[in-house]
Amino acid sequence: MNTSKPKIVVLGAGYAGLTTTKRLMQKLHPEEAEIILVNKHNYHYESTWLHEVAAGTINPNQARVMISDIVNPNRVRLIYDSVVEVKKEEQRVVLENNEITYDYLVFALGFESNDFGIKGMDEHAFAIEDIDSSRLISEHMEYQFAKYKMDENADDDSLHIMVGGAGFTGIELLGELVEKVPELCKKFDIDRSKVRIISVEAAPSILPMFDKDLVDYARKSLEDRGVEFRIGTPISECTPEGFIVGDDKELIKAGTVVWTGGVKGSSVLEKSGFELTKGKVNVDADLRLPGEENIFVLGDCSWVWDKEADRPYGPTAQLATQEADVAANNVKALLTNRPLENFVFKSKGTVASLGVTDGIGTVFDDYKLRGKSAAAMKKVVDNRSLFLVGGAKLVLKKGKIRPF
Q1: How far apart are CA 17 and CA 324, in angstroms?
Q2: I want to staple 312 with a disulfide (CB 3.0 to 4.6 A). Which of 75, 289, 303, 332 is the partner?
Q3: Annotated catalytic, 341?
């Protein structure tokens, strides 16, 4: 291989990294640059489906796609390894088992759970971070039911499931749990009334990204199916037994405790000395790291400013894939000495699942959906994200085409 070719290194095969790699393959001839994709696993996973893996409503393999099925290994060098640190001054990436140099770097290593310093949260609560951590939740939950069935002296608290945080992930997880719990009760012959599903949220409302009537619909839908909400209830500590909440230090006990209250960018950002704001990097309008000519930071690792709303865009899969298009264009622009373009987000709407046949959403310039129509739109969104990554073949193989 001709080593004089510019080296483009993409870190992470999530929505942003994988889409950037695909676009670079399409935009560049093999002789123009060497493209290298580094990822911890040999698969990409649909991170927007992890709440379903966590609840056990889908098989983990359904949310996982082999990278070599999407990216041609003859065109892109695939390295399966963990990133330890980026050394900007040396244009070098340190991996667990190797190291590589780069001419252009796309940093898209995704998110990690952010416990905001709440005592005991990291030690005692589960978090939805990847396939393995999500699968652990469903396996633990099922184990609690099995143990309860076997042990005559088992405490009802062990069946309780508590979710900290009522943002997007927390609410979608609750939507799956209300589907899964009746199945587990039937499987282990346990009375459904013994199982509490509890949502604890410090903010005065759930789902801050939706307007009030959709939020009210979502809350009533979940409450009608057995979710207990504790809104405006700050968590001061997580113990092996559950959450300690409120001014009176009430202990809410649960056998399965999941924290979904926030995310931050990969810890590699901090290890690499990147300047962080609330766990992420503020990038320039062209998606580059401030002060760096050849480093782009995408997806959950960066904040991109929405000038109209005067706040950063929320971290979504559609944001990550749109950033990837612009990043790939800008890498090509740097290679060909053309001007770079600024990122402009075009929202396609937001849809939240509340289980298989229910949901809420806003699409097409604030057209509101609720119920089955929102659930159907959610499946369209999920299938579209598969299509963008791997085309029609991947949609047929992994898509959500299950009937209501």
Answers
A1: 7
A2: 303
A3: no
